[in-house]
Specification:
By secondary structure, this protein is of the alpha/beta class. The chain has helices at 57-68, 83-86, 89-95, 105-114, 186-189, 191-202, 206-216, 236-247, 266-280, 296-305, 322-333, 343-348, and strands spanning 5-8, 11-13, 16-18, 23-24, 28-29, 34-36, 39-42, 46-49, 75-77, 100-104, 122-126, 131-133, 138-143, 153-157, 162-166, 223-226, 253-260, 286-290, 306-312, 315-316, 319-320. 33% of the residues lie in helices and 24% in strands. Strands 1-2-7-8-9-10-11 form a 7-stranded mixed beta sheet. Strands 12-13-14-15-16 form a 5-stranded mixed beta sheet, with no helix packed on it. Strand 4 (23-24) and strand 5 (28-29) form a beta hairpin. The radius of gyration is 22 Å and the shape is elongated. The structure holds MU-OXO-diiron.
């Protein structure tokens, strides 16, 4: 059964929701699922902006069929070649053999790697500042290398002032009919999901996200339509501010993350005692994690949020407890930095 919603009259969300996938990228638990957002611009020329993961193929094809209703699809715009967005490209090419694919040079290199047989398809190679007119709607392309793969582009539509932002400003969590930010309680349902998504997947590329902000500074943006999670049309300032903090590795709040490893409960006892002593000093917002039974993506999320971290672990084989070493390696891997700040001044004075 199809499942579509208008953003404006002729720009339609045709994405899908996936509640069956347990591990995003076969790594990150997503108990609340994930949405794969895709959009159709239905103008004199029609364009599909990205596709979805293969797992939700049937609904996606019904969505496209519902909106186009027999009309040809002129362009498939590929902003991101990761398989959660490019999984249905072969089906689209088979259904619309005259379609033109639009992507960056790097995007086409990846297309060729994933789908070698697609090399003879009609192509429009775009680069920074390239434009494409669909009739009333005019698109401008903005390259966003490493947010989160090298080929990524965003698209700005000047009539509606919608920015199709690829993975940027996205979140884990399905859209259960409510696809817009003003239809959901974002802080309750999505904030932890959005930060966990950012920190673990894009976190290493803070400087690249910073450069995107520089590029967007001159644009009048009324709506941000990412490839995952809610579409921002009311409170854009909220998510932009969060991204400025996250991408500059600036804590979102005054708080403490305590991560402990404990074989027989002694280091755990120490961590509990410490948390009580901190609480007695009036410190609020203490989050505590047993490293051995918490997926590291949740710990990385907490560390990205809070101003301070405490690590506590025993030794093992005359070295650091392996799960703690693994977390430290992960923090290095996601580019964790800028965490040196005075404790006493912030919490006790
Ligand atoms: Fe949503 Fe980078 O994939």
């Amino acid at each position: 059964m199809y499942d579509v919603r208008n953003i404006v009259e002729d720009i339609i969300w045709v994405g899908t929701n996936d509640k069956r996938l347990t591990l995003f990228e076969n790594m990150f638990p997503i108990p609340e699922g994930v949405s794969y957002n895709s959009y159709i611009i239905n103008d004199e020329k029609t364009a599909l902006l990205d596709t979805v993961d293969n797992a939700t193929r049937n609904t996606f094809l019904e969505n496209i069929n519902k909106i186009l209703n027999g009309k040809a699809l002129d362009y498939l715009i590929i902003n991101h070649m990761e398989p959660d967005h490019c999984g249905i490209i072969p089906d689209i090419m088979a259904l619309y053999p005259n379609i033109e694919l639009v992507s960056s040079q790097k995007g086409f290199e990846l297309l060729k790697a994933f789908y070698p047989w697609a090399k003879d398809t009609k192509k429009v190679v775009i680069k920074e500042g390239s434009t494409l007119s669909l009739g009333k709607h005019n698109l401008t392309f903005c390259t966003m290398p490493m947010v989160h793969w090298p080929e990524v582009t965003a698209v700005y539509e000047s009539k509606t002032k919608i920015l199709f932002s690829a993975d940027a400003f996205g979140s884990f969590g399905t859209l259960n009919g409510n696809i817009f930010d003003d239809e959901v309680d974002f802080e309750r349902r999505f904030l932890e999901n959005a930060r966990r998504y950012y920190a673990n997947i894009v976190g290493k590329y803070g400087p690249q996200v910073g450069r995107v902000f520089e590029k967007l500074a001159g644009l009048d943006i009324k709506c941000i339509a990412p490839l995952h999670g809610p579409i921002w049309k009311e409170n854009l300032g909220y998510i932009l501010e969060k991204y400025k903090l996250w991408s500059s590795y600036t804590p979102e709040k005054k708080g403490i993350t305590i991560v402990y490893a404990s074989m027989y409960g002694n280091t755990e006892n120490l961590a509990q005692h410490l948390s009580t002593k901190l609480a007695e000093k009036g410190i609020k917002d203490i989050e505590m994690f047993d490293i051995s039974n918490t997926d590291s993506s949740y710990i990385v999320n907490s560390i990205w949020k809070n101003s301070h971290i405490i690590f506590a672990a025993p030794t093992y084989n005359a070295d650091l407890y392996p799960n703690m070493r693994s977390l430290l390696t992960k923090l290095e891997y996601v580019g964790f930095q800028n965490k040196s700040r005075p404790f006493r001044k912030l919490f006790l004075e």
